[in-house]
Each structure stands twice: as structure tokens, then as C-alpha cells.
Design a protein that fits this description.
about 210 residues, mainly alpha, globular
């Protein structure tokens, strides 16, 4: 006869797996929305599929080959923000040499190849850094460079979040009156409120 603790443990594992799946799906949708936004929103279903497949592969590798039991992972948001900038730049270059309709029809293979090459190069770089224990080299990066990079990533995340919630591209050249007008606030306020609730919940559970 199965003990009550075993049944409780199974229920806890099922609930943990269910929550992990929800977080992976939400993260995949967010990552794809950051990359395929604006004029590239027509490719969003393809991007969501790629992000979900990526999350499945990452979770499977961590479950069967991970060095620490219970580790979870999914598509990351910050690399998706950086890829979104790269993808938008590539699409604008294609659009400048062709029409917008041709760019939409022919841009996806170029974008997918750029994402593939970038992902493979990043994986090789991280492997070499870990293999030869080169992580200490980070301390030689000047603080102004690190601060500027983090500040730029922060702005890209804010602009990308507004783009996802408001469905309009936000550039750094726009004024604060453009960013904080009433239509934008109506769409962005629920996301900000949800982020504040998560922050408060995180602090209360420490």
C-alpha cells in the first residue's frame, strides 16, 4: 500500500511540472513576441513554435543530462531582446533593397538563419568559457562598459514590453509625452501592475 507521503510527493511533482510548463509557455510566447514584433508580427506563430521547441529541448536536456536534479530552464527573455534588435535591423536592410511585400515574403529564411548562427555561436562561446574556466575574464570589463550595456538592455526590455502590450514600436528618439499618453497607459498599466505584484510576492516569500 502506498504511503500518504508518497502520494503527496507525486501530487507536488505533478503540480510543479504543470507550473513549469505554464512558465515555459509564457516565456516562449514573450520571447517570440520580442523578436517578431512590428512588421514581423506576421511571423509570430512561427516564432512561438520555435521558442516552444527550444524550451522543450532545454527542459529535456536538463532533465536527462543536467548535473543538478530539479533544474528547470526555458527560452530566456534577455537574449530574445538582443535578437529582436538584430532581426529588426536585418529586416530593415532587406526592406531597403526591396519592397515591403518582397521583404515580408523573403525575409523569414534570412532571419531564421541569423537566429540559428547566433545561437550556435553563443553556445560554442559559453562552452569554451566553461571548458577552459575563463569566467574570471569578466572582471576586466570596465564598469562604465558594463553599466552602459545593462542600461541599454534595460531600455530594450522596456521598449519591447511596450511594443508587445501596445503593439506600436517605441524608439529611443520618442519623447516621454509619446510614451505616456493615455492609450499607451491603458495598455501598459495592467502589465506594470502585474510586475509590481510579482515583485511584492517575491519579497514576501523570502
Amino acid at each position: 500500500m502506498r504511503s500518504p507521503s508518497a502520494g503527496t510527493s507525486m501530487i507536488s511533482n505533478i503540480m510543479a511540472g504543470f507550473i513549469t510548463a505554464l512558465l515555459a509557455i509564457a516565456g516562449s510566447v514573450c520571447a517570440a513576441s520580442f523578436i517578431f514584433s512590428g512588421e514581423l508580427a506576421i511571423y509570430l506563430p512561427t516564432g512561438i513554435g520555435l521558442a516552444l521547441i527550444t524550451s522543450i529541448i532545454i527542459l529535456g536536456m536538463l532533465a536527462f543530462r543536467g548535473s543538478f536534479y530539479g533544474t528547470i530552464g526555458a527560452a530566456a527573455i534577455i537574449p530574445a531582446v538582443m535578437m529582436g534588435v538584430m532581426v529588426q535591423s536585418i529586416f530593415k536592410d532587406i526592406e531597403s533593397s526591396t519592397s515591403i511585400f518582397q521583404a515580408i515574403n523573403t525575409g523569414l529564411p534570412t532571419i531564421l538563419m541569423a537566429i540559428l548562427v547566433t545561437s550556435i555561436a553563443t553556445g560554442i562561446f559559453y562552452y569554451l568559457m566553461g571548458r577552459y574556466k575563463l569566467g574570471s575574464l569578466v572582471r576586466f570589463i570596465p564598469y562604465p562598459v558594463m553599466g552602459g550595456f545593462l542600461g541599454g538592455v534595460g531600455w530594450l526590455m522596456v521598449a519591447g514590453s511596450i511594443n508587445v502590450m501596445r503593439r506600436i514600436p517605441i524608439g529611443i528618439e520618442h519623447s516621454f509625452t509619446y510614451l505616456f499618453n493615455m492609450p499607451t497607459l491603458v495598455h501598459v498599466a495592467p502589465g506594470v501592475l502585474f510586475a509590481v505584484c510579482l515583485l511584492l510576492d517575491r519579497k514576501s516569500t523570502r
